[in-house]
Amino acid sequence: MSSQNSRRVRSQQILSQPVLKKQRTDDTAGIFLSQPTASTSANIPLSNTSPSRVISEDDDQLVNSVIRYLLILDGGKQIVNKTRIIKNVFGNRGRRFPSVMNKAKSLLSKVFGYELVELEGNKYMLVNKIKNELPHICPLGTEGSQQVLLFIVLTHIFMLQNSCSEESLSNFLANLDIPYADNNQHVYFGNVKYLINEVFVAQKYLDKITMETINLTKIEFKWGPRAEHEFSQRAALEFMSEVYNGRPIKSWQLQFQALTAQEKLDR
């Protein structure tokens, strides 16, 4: 079984676990989450249980609830802030946030193949630790088509040294017969402008920088933090090599230097 399939099975197992007696409905995901409660610990005979053991078992349940919560949100590539996690998972146990999150981070990495990344402003996201190489991008339904579009856009941005104007991106897509206009539906990708400006930006695959002047508004796109973790610069350059009939990737000197420098940092 592949690592991706194994991770999918493990995710389904933890998400299918029965919830505890006391439940809270998450205000955004619309699901019930297992919530550790005081009554859970109270059911353990105090004569046979030390306070440290009660806290440890309670922490384990909190870790499980955090993992379930993050995995569910990751289905929509949502970014979640610390306040929201405490509200929907920890309740009045917010003081345990640092230790529980450290344990959850370790389990997410070892068991599920995800990295829990902390962003600016006490925000968190899950990123896929299995690098997206070209063979992994399979056009299966809406999600697959969006991933193909995303890879095309990220490759274009990378080839322009990780920063491109909206005009440049629009012209590039037009050359591929992919319309970039308001309310314009592509037969395969759908509303391309909406996906790029709203969906990919919200998912942190793209950073969108808007520069206002007196008479003009300029927009630039860069790789976002999720793209930095999940997508391979080498795969992007190898894709360009295929487009140019096997042109050596080293012939793009600036891009090759950038990817080799990044690969050294990732070791």
Automatic annotation (TrEMBL):
Domain MAGE: 59-258
Region spans: Disordered: 1-22
InterPro entries: MAGE (IPR037445), MAGE_WH1 (IPR041898), MAGE_WH2 (IPR041899), MHD_dom (IPR002190)
A Pfam entry, by short name: MAGE
Top-level lineage group: Eukaryota
GO CC entries: nucleus
PANTHER family: MELANOMA-ASSOCIATED ANTIGEN MAGE ANTIGEN, NSE3 HOMOLOG, SMC5-SMC6 COMPLEX COMPONENT
Name the UniProt record assigns to this protein: Non-structural maintenance of chromosomes element 3 homolog
